[in-house]
Design a protein that fits this description.
The protein is mainly α and 192 residues long. The protein is built from 10 helices and no strands. It is elongated. The mean pLDDT is 87.
Length: 192
Amino acid sequence: MLTERQEEIINTSIEIIARKGIQGLTIKNLSKEIGISEPAIYRHFESKTDILLTILKNFQEVSSFMDEAMRLGNESALNKIEFMFSKIIEIFTIQPSHISVIFSEEIFKNEKILKEKIVEIMNSKQRTIEELLAEGQHKGEIRDDIDFKTQALIVIGSLRFLVKQWDLKSQNENLNEEGQKLIEGLKLILAR
């Protein structure tokens, strides 16, 4: 559980990354923006890497609803995927600055611990989607002429592109509406 100051540091870090990119996130910039000294930051986090790792862990916890989708009982695989998409879109609509961190994997390539965490998150989400699609194929709900791993890449890539495009266009469109259109399109493509 994070302290109030740690949450402030995390939220301010995300905002800085959203505005200035990862290169703009320095302990000096962070302390100036919050209005505390640099040593005060280090009393709460060991390093910038520690801050970024905490951001990733928090996103992983917030996005745990994907596991919830797997437990939706008798719902079809397509309905479970729709639930997941709507929740992801809801998170990014409420906190658009998270997009700059979560969909910028390249910023983690030079830090082994960060790279491992982002790969862990990506693999987990991909496995969940693959399991849902395999389940749907097994039940005859989803077409099986395309293997479920390829379908998962299509689903994940489509969502990623939609969210990143929305962010780059300064969030001028209604992400919920665009997300619903994407979900309906994917359902048409995937349904048997």
